UniProtKB/TrEMBL annotation:
Record keywords, A-Z: Nucleotidyltransferase, Transferase
Name of protein: DNA polymerase-3 subunit chi
InterPro entries named in the record: DNA_pol3_chi, PolIII_chi_sf
Pfam family, one: DNA_pol3_chi
Length: 139
């Protein structure tokens, strides 16, 4: 069963997600990042620039190199080659999240984002998924 971790109050949601993906990669795991196309375009740009010392190989789902790339970006339910970790940057519950061992929900401090995260929390809780909440004091 998928373990769900909420990371609440990210001052900059995409910057935090970059650091989270880097941490997952440093642990030797693969990750799929889910979000709307505009968010993923910005996230793609940030993965190239957020750190001068790190290179995080990534491609969009459907790319010819997806099966050999540890970080996949997708904006719809896709048959991705990885099932370790899913990072959700969307306001919706990814329909395919249960394929993954672990789901990370990154939530900003904006009230709309927090309200939508509470709905997703209830969704997972009501279906019996193991949940953990992490408050980000300063990221």
């Amino acid at each position: 069963m998928t373990r769900v971790d909420f990371h609440f109050n990210a001052a900059d949601k995409l910057q935090y997600a970059c650091r989270l993906v880097r941490k997952i990669r440093r642990a030797g795991q693969q990750v799929v990042v889910f979000g709307d196309p505009l968010t993923l375009a910005e996230f793609d740009r940030l993965l190239w620039t957020f750190s001068k010392l790190d290179f995080i190989p990534h491609v969009f789902a459907g790319d010819a190199l997806a099966d050999r790339t540890p970080v996949i970006l997708c904006s719809e339910s896709a048959d991705t080659p990885h099932s370790d970790n899913l990072v959700n940057l969307s306001h919706a519950t990814p329909s395919f999240f249960s394929r993954f061992e672990r789901l990370f929900e990154v939530v900003s401090s904006e009230e709309r984002d927090r309200a939508q995260a509470r709905e997703r929390w209830r969704f997972y809780r009501d279906r019996g998924y193991p949940l953990a909440g992490h408050q980000l004091a300063a990221d």
